[in-house]
Amino acid sequence: SYELTQPPSVSVSPGQTARITCSGDALAKQYGFWYQQKPGQAPVLVIYKDSERPSGIPERFSGSSSGTTVTLTISGVQAEDAADYYCQSTDSTDYYSVVFGGGTKLTVL
Amino acid sequence: QVQLVQSGAEVKKPGASVKVSCKASGYTFTNYDVTWVRQAPGQGLEWMGWISANNDNTDKAQKFQGRVTMTTDTSTNTAYMELTSLRSDDTAVYYCARMGSYYSDSSGFQYYFDYWGQGTLVTVSS
């Protein structure tokens, strides 16, 4: 199985742009998905298929992919965006097992 | 609206088993698979496996092979996850989620989770 690597933490001031990266060899062929998890709550899907945004997710959330890295970008960060963010993909070399990144804690200063 | 409602918190002794339920509503239950993910205190998300609500096919993470059983009851739109031989490091919040998938010839299947239950805390302590 493979791993997805995220930075443990990212800090930004309100109104700035936050970028959270997720790296893994399989991301060159597999989609990346992003989840937001606030304390005491279940995760919420915020980006699917690298860059698509589910209905109800604010436009300030966007995603991109380049090579073996996917990136979640939050433009004009708001205090309510403070949360843990997890990337996720599927390992097609291991009978389609699901892999999560270790998570990134976004702090809004 | 899509909802997944899980059963309440459990406290178990080491060696015991626990069975968590996940009742789905707001969509056709048999059109989607259900996955189970757990999160130990202060830790990240860990995928456990999934079950097809249509034909009961399952796939489980290697770590849980032999210890986890996933089932569904289509008469009540409910999925179940049973974990046996509990240890202290099984203490975690257990989530069910509705699973979607994409398929391509070049990449095979790709899974994602678009709706989640509220989580069930399972505490294993003597």
Describe this structure in words.
The complex is a heterodimer of chains A (109) and B (126). Chain A is mainly β and 109 residues long. Chain A is 0% helix and 45% strand. Chain A has no helices and 9 strands. Chain A has strands spanning 9-12, 18-23, 33-37, 44-47, 61-66, 69-74, 83-91, 97-100, 104-108. In chain A, the strands form 2 sheets. In chain A, strands 1, 3, 4, 7, 8 and 9 form a 6-stranded mixed beta sheet that branches. A 3-stranded antiparallel beta sheet of chain A has the order 2-6-5, with no helix packed on it. Chain B has 126 residues and is mostly beta strands. Chain B has no helices and 11 strands. Chain B has strands at residues 3-6, 10-12, 18-25, 33-39, 45-52, 58-60, 68-73, 78-83, 92-104, 108-116, 120-124. In chain B, the strands form 2 sheets. In chain B, strands 2, 4, 5, 6, 9, 10 and 11 form a 7-stranded mixed beta sheet that branches. Chain A binds chain B through residues 29-31, 33, 35, 37, 42-45, 48-49, 54, 86, 88-90, 92, 95-103, and chain B through 35, 37, 44-47, 50, 59, 61-62, 95, 97, 102, 106-114, 116-119.
Protein structure class of chain B? mainly beta
- N-to-C SSE series of chain B? EEEEEEEEEEE
Computed Rg of chain B: 14 Å
Measured by DSSP, the beta-strand proportion of chain B falls in: over 45%
Total helical segments of chain A: 0
- Report the uncertain regions of chain B: none
Using the alpha-carbon principal axes, give the shape of chain A: globular
Number of strands of chain B: 11
* Number of helical elements of chain B: 0
Largest sheet of chain A: 6 strands, mixed
Biggest interface pair, counts: A-B, 27 and 26 residues
Helix fraction of chain A by DSSP (H/I, runs of at least 4): under 10%
Rg of chain A, alpha carbons? 13 Å
Unreliable spans of chain A are none
